[in-house]
Write a structure and sequence with these properties.
This protein is α/β, with parallel strands linked by helices. It is built from 13 helices and twelve strands. The longest helix is centred in the N-terminal third of the chain and has 14 residues. InterPro entries: ABC_phos-bd_PstS, PBP_domain, Phosphate-bind_PstS.
């Protein structure tokens, strides 16, 4: 059966196609790696593609989808549900969606299962670099930077530190120590519920940089996971928007969010100590440098389960950096649909 993807790419007008390709090479892979039969009628062809996954680059995906719908010379409908990396990835594996976007590559065992020993090609296409940051709502001047090491952050998230006036926090923040620390609100930890790539990236960083202090675990006992068992006196929130809402409304809150989302809402970002010992925010960092030294597979068709950009060395490297992957089937013939579908 003909692919529902390749015609979508081919029937963009040439000027727009040339503009689109520099935007991301992943788009060409998305459409050019599928099987296409020439026996179709353009006038009768219409395409609907469904995707789901991470919330972090959802605005990018919605914008790109809207442009494709506008530029396409055939009737085209694209959907993307921002439901979290874990859900999107699970739906992709189950065949519920046509593609997924995730900061989490497929685990090795899942990759081996869905590729059926190499008879089916599943692609991990890095489409963007993303970062996660810590944001806070301490009532301090906007130009006062809050510094945290991985060890102190881990103690805060695990509730081993519950006061912003704790000496471990003040030692890193002389400007905070010079204020009336008795008036500081207590620490409120806000975290994602359900499976979240932001939770995974945060736990991966704290496991790598502060393994003794990071004591939270998943239900299966893993220190790095998309879902963790949080202390009862923490606050769970759904999606980046939910975490943002808590930080905006609760003084003294600390949470982790996609950096761009938090900055767009003008939240106060924590300066985190990177692997070289420098305190910086994501907007001060060279985000791309994390990918410079990372070991990458030779092909999008390989397993990417071991790829990590977390806590890479470099004076301006950001310690919580990740790829956002498009998860794709190299051939759409698996859909087993006849005719123009």
């Amino acid at each position: 059966p003909p692919s529902p993807l390749l015609p979508f790419f081919l029937f963009l007008s040439p000027p727009l196609t040339s503009t689109l390709l520099p935007f991301s090479n992943m788009l060409s892979l998305l459409f050019l790696t599928t099987v296409f039969s020439p026996a179709f009628c353009l006038e009768e062809l219409s395409l609907t593609l469904h995707g789901s996954g991470t919330t972090n680059p959802s605005k990018l995906l919605w914008h790109a989808g809207a442009l494709f719908e506008e530029w396409s010379k055939i009737p085209l409908h694209l959907t993307y549900r921002a439901v979290g990396s874990s859900t999107g990835r699970a739906e992709f594996v189950a065949g519920v969606n046509d593609y997924a976007a995730s900061e989490l590559p497929l685990p090795e065992d899942v990759y081996n299962e869905v590729t059926q020993g190499g008879t089916v090609q599943i692609l991990h296409v890095p489409m963007a670099l993303g970062t996660v940051s810590f944001f806070h709502s301490l009532p301090i001047p906007a130009d006062t930077q809050l510094n945290l090491t991985a060890a102190v952050a881990a103690r805060l998230f695990t509730r081993n530190i519950t006061s912003w006036s704790d000496q471990a926090v003040l030692d890193l923040n002389p400007a905070l120590a010079a204020t009336d620390t008795a008036s500081l609100p207590p620490v409120t930890i806000v975290h994602r519920v359900f499976g979240s790539s932001s939770t995974y990236l945060t736990s991966e960083f704290l496991t790598a940089a502060a393994p003794d202090e990071w004591t939270l675990r998943s239900a299966s006992g893993a220190s790095v996971a998309a879902t963790l068992e949080w202390p009862e006196d923490t606050t769970g929130a759904e999606g980046s928007g939910g975490v943002t809402s808590v930080i905006q409304t609760v003084p003294g809150a600390l949470g982790y969010i996609d950096s761009g989302h938090g900055l767009a809402f003008q939240l106060s970002e924590v300066a985190v100590q990177n692997a070289d010992g420098n305190f910086l925010t994501s907007s001060q960092a060279d985000v791309g440098s994390a990918a410079d030294s990372a070991a990458l597979p030779e092909s999008p068709a390989d397993s990417w389960h071991a790829v990590t950009l977390v806590n890479q060395a470099g004076p301006s490297a950001w310690p919580m950096t990740t790829f956002t992957y498009l998860l794709l089937n190299a051939s759409q013939t698996f859909r087993q649909e006849a005719g123009e579908q």
